[in-house]
Design a protein that fits this description.
Number of strands: 0
Radius of gyration: 24 Å
Order of helices and strands: HHH
Shape: flat
Structural class: mainly alpha
Length: 83
Amino acid sequence: MDLFGVDYLFENALEYIREMQYKNYVTDALKALVEITIKVNGGEISIPSYHEIVNPKQIKRESAKTADEIVDEIISNTGIKLI
């Protein structure tokens, strides 16, 4: 019995999880091959994983400036005079 489409939602969730697992697996395998190839040839590189690209870390800001504060700072630093 499908109550309010729960079976449909569950199947879609499982399909999404399988797809993400596959993408992570394939991209991590390719990443490993590229990194090994570069290291063998004397290079060095750091490649982000698929998960890091899709879900980037949020940048924490110490203090969020308003647009007026940014404009005032630019004007004071550059010496621009508004007419």
